[in-house]
């Protein structure tokens, strides 16, 4: 559902720095359902360890996931298959925005609370605190100045509104992606059940037991997606 430009915008907006190779691998994963790390290494003409380094970085961030299968040719060796998890990507992005809103709201609350500060702005006081100290800093006894933060407060309120709008947009994307996955699972189930029905017609005597086992496998497979 997310296009490469959307993914790139999310990465940049979150301030995540990716080297050129990792960016290229992320681009490939955005265009592919699933791919082995061997294929990735071959495609970019790099060593398997170099490919893994980039993949592990993306995995640590939470954008990609992997499955592994035993290599038929090499005993005790596994082949890792990687894919971009767009749902996780959107979840991480949503939490990032929610954290920014929380921080902005806390700052806004503090700005409303404080009325006076030291000249260097390092210490701030509410009106009652300033009055109790005769409008002087407790440690230096220097005079406090009144805080004129109306512009800053207005900017914080605007930022919070913008962030909440962005959060709503991300939530819509998450809902659309979930619905798309559900439809894909339903389509897969329907296609496999239709294929099973055709097979049953060909092998009627064995159909009952086979159908029951196969249907369980189909449901289990769909549940994993």
Which secondary structure elements does this structure contain, and how are they paired or packed?
Elements: H1 4-13, H2 20-30, E1 35-36, H3 37-44, H4 48-61, E2 64-70, E3 78-84, H5 86-113, E4 116-117, E5 124-125, H6 127-132, E6 145-146, H7 150-202, H8 207-224
Antiparallel strand pairs: 1-3, 2-3, 4-5, 4-6
Helix pairs in contact: 2-4, 3-4, 5-7, 7-8
Tell me what you see in this structure.
By secondary structure, the chain is mainly α. It folds into three domains: 81 residues, Winged helix-like DNA-binding domain superfamily/Winged helix DNA-binding domain (Arc Repressor Mutant, subunit A, Orthogonal Bundle), CATH 1.10.10.10; 81 residues, no CATH class; 45 residues, no CATH class. 66% of the residues lie in helices and 10% in strands. It contains eight helices and six strands; from the N terminus they run ααβααββαββαβαα. It has a three-stranded antiparallel sheet with strand order 1-3-2. A hairpin with a 7-residue loop joins β2 and β3. α3 crosses α4 and α5 packs antiparallel against α7. The protein is elongated and about 95 Å long. The C terminus is likely disordered.
């Amino acid at each position: 559902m997310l296009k490469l430009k959307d993914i790139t915008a999310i990465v940049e907006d979150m301030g995540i720095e990716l080297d050129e190779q990792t960016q290229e691998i992320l681009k490939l994963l955005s265009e592919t359902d699933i791919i082995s790390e061997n294929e990735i290494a071959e495609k970019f003409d790099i060593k398997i360890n170099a490919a893994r380094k980039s993949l592990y970085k993306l995995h640590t961030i939470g954008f990609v996931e992997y499955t592994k299968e035993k290599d038929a040719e090499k005993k005790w060796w596994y082949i890792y298959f990687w894919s971009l998890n767009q749902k996780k990507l959107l979840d991480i992005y949503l939490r990032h925005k929610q954290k920014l809103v929380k921080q902005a709201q806390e700052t806004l609350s503090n700005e409303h609370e404080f009325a006076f500060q030291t000249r260097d702005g390092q210490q701030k006081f509410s009106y009652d605190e300033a009055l109790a100290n005769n409008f002087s800093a407790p440690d230096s006894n220097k005079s406090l100045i009144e805080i004129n933060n109306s512009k800053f407060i207005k900017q914080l309120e605007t930022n919070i509104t913008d962030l909440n709008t962005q959060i709503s947009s991300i939530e819509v994307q998450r809902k659309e992606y979930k619905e798309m996955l559900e439809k894909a699972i339903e389509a897969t189930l329907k296609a496999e059940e239709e294929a099973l029905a055709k097979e049953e017609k060909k092998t009627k005597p064995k159909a009952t037991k086979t159908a029951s086992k196969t249907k369980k496998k189909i449901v289990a497979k769909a549940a994993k997606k």
